[in-house]
Design a protein that fits this description.
- The complex is a heterodimer of chains A (147) and B (414).
- Chain A has a 3-stranded antiparallel β-sheet with strand order 1-2-3.
- Chain A is globular and about 50 Å long.
- Chain A has a single domain, classed as Sufe protein. Chain: A (Alpha-Beta Complex).
- Chain A starts with 6 loop residues before the first helix and ends with a helix.
- Chain A is α+β, with helices and mostly antiparallel strands and 147 residues long.
- The longest helix of chain A has 22 residues.
- Chain A is built from 6 helices and 3 strands; from the N terminus they run ααβββαααα.
- Chain B is α/β, with parallel strands linked by helices and 414 residues long.
- Chain B has 14 helices and 17 strands.
- In chain B, the strands form 5 sheets. Chain B has a 7-stranded mixed β-sheet with strand order 4-10-9-8-7-5-6, sandwiched between helices.
- In chain B, helix 11 packs parallel to helix 14.
- The chains are: A alpha+beta (147), B alpha/beta (414).
- Chains A and B meet through helix 2 and helix 3 of A and helix 12 of B.
């Protein structure tokens, strides 16, 4: 399958989309909108094993390895977190384990959403990025040991 | 002109606000509305000045030095103890122990009195509305001693079920540790009645005054609690300082908590004799600067007038409650008859975190989450609440801003 965009290309797209907004309200409205449109996770996946522990909102994350790429699905009980998740999935889902491990995710800073990665937010987003990278690492190790 | 010796009736909130430099700042381009006072209050200029003055003019280690700076620092440090004694109406100055905060005070009692007296099969009673700080130390103690932790249930209004409490008391009850005012519900508990019943059963009582001390008159003698704990930073004072009040005969009979400097009389490798109260429980160099600045916070409260502060906060609480109730999808969690100025609420189909983020985006600081009282959230079957808590410097205009902010938040999320 071809036609995959690189992580950097997708990040650039998102930054360009956000550059259209000049107020924080508009940015948040856009994130809320993305949150609403995020495909809901099937109930069977909403189990403790898939929970990414955060202090306030709950995030469930599942990963699937297919054809050398990792595909993510996720959901949260808080809408803004859902919007942020939706962007992470857009950027990281369908990428190779190596690219996911090395992704710097600078777009989060460029669109002004670093506060959501700060420790104080404790919203599970930082844990989710870590968890996505952990999945990538796990599949990479698994592949290198079985080959 | 000389300052009036008597406290003026009522406060001019705008004059009060001028004493808090942080209130001039903006957040996200909007004037800061600070409604997270139950987490920590802002500091008046005189507290900030006291800190700077100490470090600029008489920074020294206390109690041991015989030079001028050490004397000045010791005098200022001990002056705070006198001020706290007066503030809480303790009988003796040595009943006031400085700690790092409320949490350390509770742990101190659990590790000393608790370890000394609680035995297998004994019981400790706490309530269903305790902060994690007043749950975990007792859980640890119960685990270690094979004792039983019993919980006073909460009613739908967010009050303690006193009938149930009285049934929990037995001859095996060693400690009752309850919160004076709930940080997540605002409820003021009838501590006098709770203490009296505990004493009749032969238990000692710890009162967690983290939230109450800034709002209510605290008289530990009238209350007749055995221990009372609070934190300076919720009292317009600096972080890193707390107070443990304990009845002298209990404090004297308890084993030491931490060993080190300050708390000893004589040390040889064979034997150490411990210092008298209060120093017995103040091992190591204490938080001198912040203890000294804490007095400036108490002075601010005295000068403003506790009664005046209470009346102002009550007015804010009532106004906020009325205004919030007019939002149809909003439900207030905690509707006790007697409350401190804390309003916790949930909004239909909205996660509290989204409320917090979108209010912050409008310059309004509220707390969202479980407020370190997860059992309270479980009791009301909610993941958390948004909480607005008011201090002496807050205004009705700020509450209007919150209401406007909430309407906007709901609109953005729907």
């Amino acid at each position: 399958m071809s036609g995959y965009k690189t992580i950097e290309e997708i990040e650039k797209e998102i930054v360009e989309e956000f550059s259209l907004f000049d107020s924080w309200d508009d940015k948040y409205e856009y994130i809320i909108d993305m949150g609403k449109k995020l495909q809901p996770l099937e109930d069977e996946y909403k189990v403790d094993a898939n929970k990414v522990r955060g202090c306030q909102s709950t995030v469930w994350l599942v990963a699937e390895y297919r054809d050398g790429r990792i595909f993510f699905k996720a959901e949260s009980d808080a809408i803004i977190v859902k919007g942020l998740i939706s962007m992470l999935i857009r950027v990281l889902s369908g990428q190779s384990p190596d690219d996911i491990i090395n992704a710097k995710l600078n777009f989060i800073q460029e669109i002004g959403m670093t506060t959501h990665l700060a420790q104080t937010r404790s919203n599970g987003l930082l844990s989710m990025v870590k968890q996505m990278k952990n999945y990538a690492l796990a599949y990479k190790v698994k592949n290198s040991t079985t080959v | 002109m000389k300052e009036a010796a008597t406290i003026q009736k009522g406060i001019n909130v705008y004059a009060v606000r001028k004493q808090f430099p942080i209130l001039n700042r903006e957040v996200k381009g909007k004037p800061l509305v600070y409604f997270d006072n139950a987490a920590t209050s802002q500091k008046p200029q005189q507290v900030i000045d006291a800190l700077v003055n100490y470090y600029s003019n008489y920074n020294a280690n206390i109690h041991r030095g015989i030079h001028t700076l050490a004397e000045e620092a010791t005098a200022a440090y001990e002056a705070t103890r006198d001020a706290v004694q007066k503030f809480m109406h303790a009988a003796l100055r040595e009943e006031i122990i400085f700690t790092r905060g409320t949490t350390e005070g509770i742990n101190l009692v659990a590790y000393t009195w608790g370890r000394q007296h609680v035995k297998e099969g004994d019981e400790i009673i706490i309530s269903g509305m305790e902060h994690h700080s007043n749950i975990v130390p007792w859980q640890v103690l119960c685990g270690e001693k094979k004792a039983v932790l019993k919980i006073i249930p909460i009613t739908e209004e967010g009050e303690l079920d006193l009938e149930a409490y009285k049934k929990l008391l037995t001859s095996k009850t060693k400690i009752v540790s309850v919160v004076h005012a709930s940080n997540s519900l605002g409820t003021v508990n009838p501590v006098k009645e709770i203490i009296k019943a505990a004493h009749e059963a032969g238990a000692v009582v710890v009162i967690d005054g983290a939230q109450s001390t800034v709002h209510l008159d605290i008289d530990v003698q009238k209350m007749d609690c055995d221990f009372f704990v609070c934190s300076a930073h919720k009292l317009y004072g600096p972080t890193g300082v707390g107070v443990l009040y304990g009845k002298k005969k209990l404090l004297e009979s308890m084993p030491v908590f931490q060993g080190g400097g300050e708390m000893i009389k004589e040390v040889t490798f064979e034997k150490t004799t411990f210092n008298d109260l209060p120093y017995k429980y103040e091992a190591g160099t204490p938080n001198i600067a912040d203890v000294i600045a804490f007095k400036a916070a108490l002075d601010f409260i005295q000068k403003t007038g506790k009664e005046n502060i209470r009346l102002h906060e009550d007015e804010l609480l009532q106004y906020a409650t009325e205004q919030l109730q007019q939002i149809p999808s909003l439900k207030i969690i905690g509707t006790a008859k007697e409350k401190v100025s804390v309003v916790s609420f949930v909004i239909d189909k909205v996660h509290p975190q989204d409320i917090g983020i979108l209010l912050d985006n409008q310059g309004i600081a509220v707390r969202t989450g479980h407020h370190c009282t997860q059992p309270v959230m479980d009791r009301f079957c909610i993941p958390g609440t948004a909480r607005a808590s008011f201090a002496v410097y807050n205004t009705k205009e700020e509450i209007d801003a919150l209401i406007k902010g909430l309407h906007k938040t709901i609109k953005m999320l729907s």
